[in-house]
Amino acid sequence: MADPRNVDIKDQPGFRTIAIICVAVLYVPILILMIFSFNTGSLVTHWEGVGLNWYGTALLNEEFHNAAENTLIISVSATIVSTICATLAAIGMTRVKPWRGLPAAFMVINLPLMVPEIITAVATLSFFALIAGAFGLNFGIGNLILAHTVFCIPFAYMPIRARLEDMDLTLEYAAADLYATPWHAFRRITLPLLVPGIMSGAALAFIVSFDDFTITQLVAGPGQTTLPLYIWNQIRRPMTPEINAISTILLLVSILFVSVSFLIARRRAK
Amino acid sequence: MTMALSQAALFEAKAEKASARRNRLLSLPALIVIGIFGVLPLLIILVYSFLQAAPYGGVQWKFSTDAYLNFLFQQDIFDDTLQFTPDFLIIYLRSFLFAVVTTVICLLLGFPTAYFMATRTPAQRNWWVLLITIPFWSNLLVRTLAIMFIIRDEGLINNLLIGLGVIDKPITMLYTNFAIQLGLLYSFLPFMILPLYASLEKLDFRLVEAANDLYATRRQVLWRVIIPLSLPGIIAGCLLVFIPALGAYVTPLILGGGIHLMIGDLIAQQFGSGRNWPLGCAQALILMAAVLVALYFYVRTTSGKIQHG
């Protein structure tokens, strides 16, 4: 397939340059932000020296602690609930004969990906306002967990479903031939094979919840500041390089989880 | 013997049917969660858009089409007549234009990038995909902030140009349409590259070789073989850029400084300072209608493609 003699036919002139430019454009702003987080000066743009003092300021800040705590409570809860829902749904939608409602069910699962985030945000806000008004119900931070769970489900669902579809069914058949009950076969064969998909999905669910700004900003009640909301509050004040330090922390968390998800998913290909 | 066998088969078939039904039920939790907290809220804003605004946010349960009328008309304070005001319409058209320009430029940059990635060795491909995937999943707010730092009056570009003596006064880039356009391109470029790559990776390059054997030039191969074959990926990429770009919220909020609105910010404003929830709901539904039109064309073109083989 990849015959070295024919590589020049596949190559298109200039495409390499554009590819390199694209990657540079994507990374230069992020890298600059990260570099400036090590600036010791008190101005965002004026470089004075290398140091970690703004990380110290950020980590000692009580508002930052509260925001980090809220973020973790919300994203860990949303990740657990959405990953369980997504795993069950992926099994329920691949290991069955096609049924009439299957396309509709598939659409519902993927709906959060198709609706623009701002619409989801105002709709969720209206929904919680309605049940608060009608039933006096307010789940507090649970509102955010529920809102996040909805849009985390499709992100967790994708890698799990992909893994289920790629899975070699002969092992399950072999287990059945050796008198394993369906539950046994699932627990001893299917589930272990599915674990990388579940972890990959959970990692993605965690990032999208951890990073979410739009829905959180509209739905969050007083005192429910998350890290992205904390950054947003900082932008509106006179800025210090502390914001660069916090932003860098957020970026590093995303990079870590993306890489983990990616590497787990890669392992299956081998 | 045969009866026992057929009975066993019958039993097995029954058990299988039951387990298939059980498996089907596994999708229920996800469907219930999204149904209640994802689909139901959309129906609620549909209802809200036909109610009257309460003075301090929220709604009054009185039927009204004011929200939709207010979208295009404003009540004259003196004689109560409705006057056509194109303000919202202009914001919608501007957002549409932003989204189209974003989609086109992302395609022009993303296609060559994705093609280049797809023609690397498998090991190199993995690295390239990871390289594009990281910004794809990175915090949009933080990435937008990074752009803001660069294009500010005291930002890197201005400092650099002033330092080099090219200009002596900073060029105003932040809080302009240019800033929003730049931010949108930067935000959504990975959304174009990844689906394009997924489709180009599956391309059968023997067809490229065949075209070459038949004396097609590189350019002909590109326009008559590669691009037509990757059309589903191109359409998917365009949609993945167009839809979020049309409803973009963070980018115009930060890079437009709240002066240059897009649809997303306009909607959020009705729920915040505007305190007109029905109007916000109506605006959201009008955006949703635009998205559905885009999705409809997507489904139509892609299902057409499958039929043609």
TrEMBL record, chain A:
Residues 68-264 form the ABC transmembrane type-1 domain. The chain crosses the membrane at residues 18-38, 72-92, 104-131, 137-157, 189-210, 243-265. It is found in: Cell inner membrane; Cell membrane. Keywords: Cell inner membrane, Cell membrane, Membrane, Transmembrane, Transmembrane helix, Transport. Pfam families: BPD_transp_1. Belongs to the binding-protein-dependent transport system permease family. CysTW subfamily. This is Spermidine/putrescine transport system permease protein PotC. It comes from Mesorhizobium loti R88b. The lineage of its organism: Bacteria, Pseudomonadati, Pseudomonadota, Alphaproteobacteria, Hyphomicrobiales.
Automatic annotation (TrEMBL), chain B:
The keyword Transmembrane applies. The chain crosses the membrane at residues 25-51, 89-115, 127-151, 178-200, 221-243, 249-268, 280-299. CDD domains: TM_PBP2. The keyword Membrane applies. It comes from the Bacteria. It is found in: Cell membrane. Keywords: Cell membrane, Membrane, Transmembrane, Transmembrane helix, Transport. Residues 92-298 form the ABC transmembrane type-1 domain. It is a multi-pass membrane protein. Pfam families: BPD_transp_1. One of its GO terms (cellular component) is plasma membrane. GO terms for biological process: transmembrane transport. Belongs to the binding-protein-dependent transport system permease family. CysTW subfamily. This is ABC transporter permease.
